[in-house]
Amino acid sequence: PIRIGVLTSGGDAQGMNAAVRAVVRTAISRGAEVYAIFEGYQGMIDGGEGIRRFEWDDVAGILGRGGTVIGTFRSKEFRTREGRLKAARNLLERGIDRLVVIGGDGSLTGLDTFRQEWPGLLAELVASGQVDAGLVAAHERLIIAGLVGSIDNDLVGVDSTIGADTALHRILEAIDAISSTAASHQRSFVLEVMGRHCGYLALAAAIAGGCDYVLIPELPPTEGWEDEMCATLRAGRARGRRDSIVVLAEGATDQQGNRISSDYVRGVIEERLGEDTRVTILGHVQRGGTPSAYDRWASTWLGYEAVDEVLTASPDAEAKVIGILGNGVVRIPLMRAVKDTQRVPELIRSGDYSAAMQARGPSFTE
Ligand code: F6P
């Protein structure tokens, strides 16, 4: 039978379990065998109990659970050829030559490297007598599919990465909670949210939460932004608004690329407006807890599609990342999606906002 491996890599994200469950059950329904690889790429390198055959019931009851039950890891060893050689051997010995990986752009880039190196790694294993040439002949190519699991929503070409919707809900719960205590005291709050170099969570939360001001990495504020922010907060108070909330993306910088800290924003508000100001850094609360309805059904759909991809793709086709765009599933060449994503900050820095804003759809390079 065809053997498919599935793993989660990088930061965990709500909905990863739904994707793993869908991969396992779709694979079984299609007559394939499926192996869960524990602790991300590290489990593939370590082998042993880190790679376990999964049956239907092994994924029972995980759909609504946060995190990833098969564990995740940011493996440094997988970044080395030595590590990838060990991983290839462990897969080959088990007859696994298809992989579904749920992770961020770094994890998916590593996956593509592994796929490209696969024939060379196999040749090396045969040459060094570690595996039998007959075994290699049956698994000459590695077929992969990537799903983007990251609360940051930082991949160009898809509407939402796995976990982003839940994280946004979590932030909104925090905004609602903060706004009631802020209003009671007529206080200002600076709320720092995750997202790495992407401002999606901050911007979407600020809009959905009716906040006063937002700072995101994609649009470093122009000089004098502090005056604008204070004027906005002052105007709110003048209209009778009792709570003020400024949302700060953790990756927000000024025009020179210096990080804007929540403490700095708090200091500005206190000094210029004389307001009692508090800081809340939400941290990993955003990544925890049960997945939203969207992250459950969308990840289930994506897991299903990923299995279909590894079972039907031609070994010569470019590796794909699978996501949802405009209520449909899209299969985007993996490296193009990663490259387009990396271009966004560069376009913004060069002042080409319109090109950056068009960074939507399967590819904005076309
Ligand atoms: O990429 C997901 C993310 O939660 C980012 O938003 C954040 O910057 C980072 O991971 C935190 O990483 P760690 O869990 O290693 O502290």
Structure description:
This protein has 366 residues and is an alpha/beta fold. It has 12 helices and 11 strands. It has helices spanning 16-29, 40-46, 81-93, 105-127, 133-137, 164-185, 200-208, 225-238, 262-273, 293-312, 334-349, 353-357; strands at 3-8, 33-37, 51-54, 98-103, 143-148, 188-193, 213-215, 244-249, 277-281, 320-325, 328-333. The chain has a 7-stranded mixed β-sheet, sandwiched between helices. Helix 1 crosses helix 10 and helix 2 crosses helix 3. It starts with a strand and ends in a 9-residue tail after the last helix. The model is unreliable at 361-366 (pLDDT under 50). The structure holds 6-O-phosphono-beta-D-fructofuranose. 6-O-phosphono-beta-D-fructofuranose is lined by residues 11, 104, 150-152, 194-196, 250, 287.
Strand and helix layout:
Elements: E1 3-8, H1 16-29, E2 33-37, H2 40-46, E3 51-54, H3 81-93, E4 98-103, H4 105-127, H5 133-137, E5 143-148, H6 164-185, E6 188-193, H7 200-208, E7 213-215, H8 225-238, E8 244-249, H9 262-273, E9 277-281, H10 293-312, E10 320-325, E11 328-333, H11 334-349, H12 353-357
Bound molecules: 6-O-phosphono-beta-D-fructofuranose.
Domain Phosphofructokinase: 3-308
Family: Belongs to the phosphofructokinase type A (PFKA) family.
Organism: Brooklawnia cerclae
